[in-house]
Each structure stands twice: as C-alpha cells, then as structure tokens.
Amino acid sequence: MKNVEKWSKLSFLQKEENSSLSPKAILIIGPAWIGDMVMAQTLFKVLKYRYPHISIDVLAPSWTVPLVQRMPEVRESILFPFGHGELHLFKRYKFARTLRNKNYDQAIILPGSFKAALIPFWAQIPLRTGWLGEWRTPLINDVRLNRDKPPLLIQQFSSLAYNKKEKFTLSLDDYYPKLEVNEQRQKDLVESLQLSTSSPVLALSPGAEYGPAKRWPIESFSQVANEMISCGWQVWIFGSKKESPLAQSIMQATQGKCVDLTGKTTLIEAVDLMSIAQAAITNDSGLMHIAAALDLPLIVLYGSSSPRFTPPLSKHVKVINLELGCSPCFKRTCPLGHFDCMKKISPELVLSNLKSLVAYDSHIDS
C-alpha cells in the first residue's frame, strides 16, 4: 500500500494537460444501467466524428458488455470485475495497474460516483474527464461543472467529447444509438426457439426494473395484445426472468396466443430477436432504449418518469405521457396510491398511436 500512497500523492499534483490535443486512445468508464449504456453510444459516435482514428475502449459491467460489443465505434469492451456497491480498494488498484500498458491518453468517466473515478486515477491516465461530484475532484484533472445545464442525458455525455474551451453546439440527431444485429445468431435463435416470422411481430416489454410506478397495467398490455392478434399479428413478450410473472398474466389473458420470451434469452439474444419485430410497445426501460436503437416503430409509455431527460432516441417513436399534475414523481411506487399516470392511458389511445406508425387492420375505431 505504500506504493499506492506514494503514487497517489504525485497524481494529486497533476494538472489538466494536453486537453486540446487529439487523443489516440481513450477509456470510457461506462454507466451501469442498460439504457444509459445504450445512450452512451452517442458519445462514442461523437468521438469518432471528431477524431476518426481514435481507439475507444469501454469499461463495462458484465450485463452491459454484450451491448457494447454491438457498437462498431468501440475497439474493446473491458469487463469491470466488481459488483454494484463493492469498493474493494486494493483489488481496484491492482486492476487499474493492468490498464497502464494500454497507454490511454484520456479517460471519460460517465458515472458520477467517487468509485468510478478511482480506476483511471490509479491507471495513470494523463487526462481524466468527468463531472464534479462525490468529493472526487482530486481524482479528476478535467473537472466539468453544471452537469444539468444540457437537459438530455445524451447531451451531457456528448459534451464530454469537447474540451472546456470549446462550445458544444453539435446537433445529435445523426448520432443516435444504433446497435448491430448478428443475423446468423438471429436465424439460429428463431430455429432453436421454434419461432415463426411469416406474420408481423409486435414486441411487448411490460417490465421496468426501477419499479411498478413505471409499468403500464398488465390488463392494458393484454387488451392491446388481443387486438393485434385478432389483426393477424404475433405478439412476442420480452424481458428478464423477473418479468416472467407479468408475461404469464398476458399469456392467460390471451389464451396462450402470445410468445413468452421472458427469461428465455440473454440480453443480446433479445436484441437479435427484437430486431425482427415490425413494432414495439414498452415502458420507460432498458429494453425501450434497445428498441429505439434498433430503429423499430415504437410506442413508449411514461408515468412516474419523464421523457425530458432520457427519451427514446429514434425518429419512429410515439411517446405517450398524460403529464398529470402529480407526475413525474420519479417514485418506485405511486405515493398517492391511485397510479392514474399509467392507468388512465387507455389501450385505445395506444392502438391509435400504433396505427399512425404502422399499417394494420384495427377492430377498434381510432
């Protein structure tokens, strides 16, 4: 530990250097949430636009590594070997030392935590860029202020591709996330899961990891599913094993006529299968951002959260948000007990919006 302390003292004295020079290799400390990692691809695209020959590596938790591997801008996805909330200072230091021989010019630290800044600090990366917060200023020598000044998360992320003296004015419409699809793996999955692609597919994602206040009622999802099935569509339900009870409720309400994929695929397999769909309906969730990054015609339902910070990044999307006086509350459960922000979004409204995105013969007047 003496070596750690000795080097740390030297590193504290480092000032921001060469921030105006073009970096050749950069390490991104990626976010933990699936949706945030998808949105981080916009930053990678902006970096490639500014520095076409740059090498971008991303340090990512295990559950997002497969997503990063579907981003062509990234040279290498590096597994972050620590679980959420784990500190393990000495193990972090030892891991950081393994990164020194990669000769990064810069690190961009997307999470706002103290822990997230330790790895690039101990990896001796000369320029370490990140937002002010959690007493981590000594670890970052390119500190950015006013994180909330650009309203969208992708704007906040992408502004870190510029040095502090530059004005960030780039329109991000052409830099939206776009995940690659493995067509051979897709074909193999269709065969192994005995899926049919002979009729159009509606992808449903009824879950939301954050909590029930972000979930449209299952009864409403079921009504939409029954309507689309009656119009000749297939309905595939996506989600993790945690969402299986939600999917089973929809299966019961549709007499088993949907395809329940919850808990039966990995996240990256869900990407390949979801890309088959002709449309998707989701809550505000990680799968929503994946559907947007696949450029699917998309309906997104917002209740306790807001599209003003992390909207779906697609040009083929309809956001449904009733904007009640009590929302967004950003709570996991409804603090008022009525859940009107989601309950009052009718299936008819969702189907009407879906009809404006894709053509289908509706049995419900819009």
Mean pLDDT: 91
Named at the architecture level, the CATH assignment of the largest domain is 3-Layer(aba) Sandwich
Portion of residues within helices = 25-40%
Radius of gyration: 22 Å
- Please trace the helix and strand order, writing H or E for each element: HEHEHEHEHEEHHEHEHEHEHEEHH
The major beta sheet can be summarized as: 6 strands, parallel
CATH class of the largest domain, named Alpha Beta
Any descriptors?
33% helix, alpha/beta, Rossmann fold, 13 helices, 366 residues, 12 strands, 6-stranded parallel β-sheet
Q: Could you explain how this protein is built, in words?
A:
By secondary structure, the chain is an alpha/beta fold. It folds into 2 domains: 14-175, 3-Layer(aba) Sandwich (Rossmann fold), CATH 3.40.50; 185-357, Rossmann fold, CATH 3.40.50.2000. 33% of the residues lie in helices and 14% in strands. It has helices at 2-12, 34-50, 65-68, 89-97, 114-122, 153-159, 183-192, 218-230, 244-253, 267-274, 286-293, 340-343, 347-357; strands spanning 25-29, 55-60, 76-79, 106-109, 127-131, 142-144, 201-205, 234-237, 259-260, 279-283, 298-302, 317-321. A 6-stranded parallel beta sheet has the order 3-2-1-4-5-6. Strands 9-8-7-10-11-12 form a 6-stranded parallel beta sheet, with helices on both faces. Helix 11 links the parallel strand 10 and strand 11. The protein is globular and about 60 Å long. It starts with a helix and ends in a 9-residue tail after the last helix. Residues 1-13 have low confidence and may be disordered.
